[in-house]
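Appendix B, record 7
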Amino acid sequence: MWLISQHFLTIQLRKVKGHSNDKANDQADALAKRGRYSPDPIIINHKFFFRSSLALFNYNHINVIDRNLRKWSNIPIQSRIFNMAMNNSSLSPINYQITYGDIDWTYTKQWINSNPLDMPTSSKLSSIQSNKLKKSTFTYPTGNILQRNYPILYPFGHINCTECSIDEDTNAHIGLCPSHR
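Structure tokens (predicted):
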């Protein structure tokens, strides 16, 4: 409306059936098809719309985000999370497997997101998810980690698994211990 009033434009609206052999409609269809298959991005001068838009999301002062913001940001956010995981010092025991692609991230995501309960949310599910994340990032409080972080409370020595009481309580044992599943 601002554009129309500022430039004293006269607008005529005319309903045109799609593919009705109308010359203007056919031209618009052809232009849309050319734009769809063009490898070059379509850049719009967003400064032209500064008074008529409620909000424009500008990325790095380069261009305007003209699609669903959540979908647009998902890929950079996922790569940022992955890079943070790659550089996480607690994941150093599996750094080789991460670097050389030995970990199936699809199954890892399915395992972390799996819900063994019938409810979508609950304190028990929160506890289960928390334990999964701690176990997968080597921050689960096993005997060796407790000895490392609290040497006065847990003096050096052999600490058995709290679930099976057979093997030493380490992160490597958690993945193999049937009592932890």
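Remarks on this record: The beta strands are 57-59, 63-65. Residues 69-86 form the longest helix (18 residues).
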